[in-house]
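Good day; I would like, with your permission, to put a structural problem before you. A protein sequence and the structure tokens that stand for its backbone fold form the material at issue. The record follows directly beneath this note:
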Amino acid sequence: MKIIDRYASAIRASSLKHDERSSHAPTDVLGAFGMADKRLCERDEELSVPLTRLFLGDKAASKDVVRTLTKMARGKAPALRTHITTVQAEDMACACLAWHRDNVCKPCGGHGQMVIKGSTTIGGAICKACRGTGQIPFEKLFRHDWRELARWLVSEMEREQAKAGPAAMKALGASLSLESTG
């Protein structure tokens, strides 16, 4: 079972009773993610665990993600020669997060082709809204001079999303003991 799956079940566990015989009890997994969050925040990588929490159903984590993305956008904007206020950066962060969470084209249901009316069969007509990509067009969400910054924010979310699990496993690794069976 993957650590993310263990975390998903740990946050929904009805009992947080500690099990001395296991290093993967809900309390251990929750503690490992807490330690991972602390370690990643020390390295200015504070997006990983909040994104994981958000995608596992913690709606309150969206505030942490937007706050971090806003700070990241404000920090990166000068390097891209983009002028953006804090309020504009926060709006951009919200839009990037919304697109990252649900970027499926609604008219075609993410197929890239339209469904034949009155049926569930995909026809041969390319969706005009997404031009066959199956995703909401990202470029149209932002002003031309902000698009590079917005694309960077989405790529940072994708990159950071992959860090929480390994960091939690590393935190759990300290409590694991390997016995030789020789």
User: Anything to note?
Assistant: Residues 175-182 have pLDDT under 50 and may be disordered. The longest helix spans residues 26-42. The chain has seven helices and two strands.
